[in-house]
Amino acid sequence: MAVVVRTVSGSILLSPDADGQASLPAGMVKSGEDPRSTAGRVLQATSLSLPLGRILAIDYQQTPASPAEAITFIYDGGTYDGGSLAAVAGGQAEFLAADLALAGLGRPQSAQLKAALDAHELLSVLELRDGQRIDTVQRDVPPRELLPDFDNTISSGS
User: Sign of the C-alpha dihedral, residues 146, 128, 114, 19?
Assistant: First the structure.
């Protein structure tokens, strides 16, 4: 579970992970907790009072040498409009320009951040597999009438 917190100017919040590496604010789903609650807990841990937004991307990961699998939900953590960051991650968190944030993250989170930023702009949810965007656009969709009587109702003025 990860959250993307942006500033009005588009900078991205990064904080150190357990190994001290730059990371999006993230956490594991605890027993009895759903993904959205986890994202809310992660956002609350940043000490920023922002409303949790929608899912921006979902990334399915499988480790080739292991039967372990993971699904990472990337949520919109909101837009921060200023103020002190002293309390965030013990004062170790910082906002970086998007290009610097992308360069400073490891490959999986960099791909997840890029997808989340794209999804935010597209007003969509993007699906990833091991950090690679999956093309989910259905092409050559046959025409169909979903509500055949609806058009007649509008045109007759009923």
Answer: positive
Residues in the chain: 158
For the entire predicted model, the pTM comes to 0.81
DSSP 94: E
H or E segment and range at residue 56: strand 55-62
Sign of CA dihedral 95, 101, 106, 107: positive
Q: Are strands 94-96 and 12-16 parallel, antiparallel or unpaired?
A: antiparallel
pLDDT grade for 86, boundaries at 50, 70 and 90: very low
- 3-class secondary structure, 59: strand
Other Cβ atoms less than 10 A from the Cβ of 29: the count is: 16
* Residue 151 scores a pLDDT above 50: yes
Query: Which residue shows structure tokens 């000490």?
Result: 47
Q: With contact defined as beta carbons under 8 Å apart, do 77 and 85 qualify?
A: no
